[in-house]
Amino acid sequence: MTRWTAALPAAATAAITLTAALPAVAATPLPRATGQAHSARGKAVNLRLTERTRHQLADAFYKQYYGQGHPGTRGRVDGPKHVYYGKIRGASAAKDVYWAIGSVGVKGDPVSYQDGPHIWRKRGNHGWEYRGDTGGCVEGGVPKALLQLWRFPACGFPA
């Protein structure tokens, strides 16, 4: 034992001795998180809907559908409500495809509430695209993997 280690606690001295006795191991870099996050390409993932996303969905509904025939009514958009939101993983985050299903309408226009649920899609970091109302059946409009994850029936809303 050297003079400088005599002042150290016994545990520290043991750790220094053990470390010196072990062979050096080359450090291996960890795999990048982005590669691991998208290793399950094609997998359906359920996501939590935020108010920001809900607002973006309502904007897409208004801009791409309702607002074209009814300018100045954006403030009356009601919803979307009862929203199911998720994604299908792509080869990278930029290739993920996000989907939302929900009910939406416009206050004061009872006809606008019929023929749901409605579907939205977003690719990567692009904006939301309103895909339209389904007339009651979402099958064919949304990937089956998401419908199965959400336990969403082919027609109508889950009970």
Chain-wise SSE layout:
Blueprint: H1 3-6, H2 10-21, H3 33-37, E1 44-46, H4 51-69, E2 77-88, E3 97-106, E4 118-123, E5 129-133, H5 144-150
Antiparallel strand pairs: 1-2, 2-3, 3-4, 4-5
Summarize the structure in words.
- The chain is α+β, with helices and mostly antiparallel strands and about 160 residues long.
- The chain has a five-stranded antiparallel beta sheet with strand order 1-2-3-4-5, with helices on both faces.
- The chain has a domain at about 45-150.
- It is built from five helices and five strands.
- A hairpin with a 5-residue loop joins β4 (about 120-125) and β5.
**Main β sheet profile:** 5 strands, antiparallel
Strand order of the largest sheet: 1-2-3-4-5
Helix content: 25-40%
* Terminal-residue CA separation: 75 Å
How many helices? 5
**Extended strand count:** 5
Overall pLDDT, averaged? Answer: 80
List low-confidence stretches.
1-5, 11-37
Spell out the helices and strands N to C: HHHEHEEEEH
- What structural class do helix, strand and pairing data support? alpha+beta
Keywords: Signal
Signal peptide: 1-26
Protein name: Peptidase M23
